[in-house]
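User: Here's a chain of 338 residues. Predict its fold as tokens.
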Amino acid sequence: MISGQNHIAIELNDLTIGYRKGNLQLKILEKLNARLHKGEMVCLVGENGVGKSTLLRTISGVQQPLAGKILIDRRPLDEISSMDLAKTISLVLTDRIYAGNLSVKELVALGRYPYTNWLGKLMKEDHHKIDWALEITGTRYLEDQLISELSDGQFQKTLIARALAQDSDMIILDEPTAHLDIVNKIIILKLLKDLASNTGKSILMATHELELSLQVADLIWMAFGKDRMVTGTPEDLIINGSFNRMIDHDAIHFDDLHGRFRVKNMADKMCSLAGDKSAYFLTQNALQRKGWTVSKEKSEISINILKNKKEFTWQVKNKTIEKEASSILEMLNILNNM
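Assistant: Prediction complete.
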């Protein structure tokens, strides 16, 4: 892993973002203070409409801040030329590009525009960067395919390849896994994490993939709205209750122990659960979904999980009945008939 804890790639100092309408200012997030270091992957999370996309556009220079400072490599953003900024930050949006008959390789090659001459001629170094970007993103096999023929997952990987060909120190992405299936979500997030760890690039990504973010993010920026944005490791934000505060709703809560969101089910029954640890969590999950409160203490109804080689047995007991099940479904059916 490439460490860059002393190299601050992006720094926000009392930043206020939003929009101007004439003489009026519509403030979305205020007085933001945060840092992103070289080689870090930061996930920006928050509810819809909280200002995540606006913050990314402001940091990348697409729109102006209302107040405060943005430092890029310790330089004020407003003092960096557009060409130098293009060599420093790559921006990946979720919008589908209507690229006509462009091939994957031709789209990736557009990432070299900050470096080509006024004729747009690609030199040897440009071709080397394009080939490297195709290889590292696993899109080499697609290089001759038209953009219009790509799946969503292939398209997102192609956009990341274009950002890599741009050879910037920082990559900013807005919902790069939107509309992707779970496999492609994980592939994209792992790719970005590996890029940060192995190449020293700084990754800032807005995402709704909260549980996946816990597994890949070095830091999380959690936006609550107005002047509330907290930052820290995923574990620190779990411990201090930020995840539960972010989604304050009667229907859902954050399970601090397992690092996941859970639907709140009305628990009106009690049982004790013990036995083999490898099936304990899944059994507990199924019971809670069915409205059972699960305890390790003795209860009128008890369940014990036994394992023999690769086979599991669930022993279900109360004061008068003792039965065995060979699956969680069978165990639940026994409970329903008690």
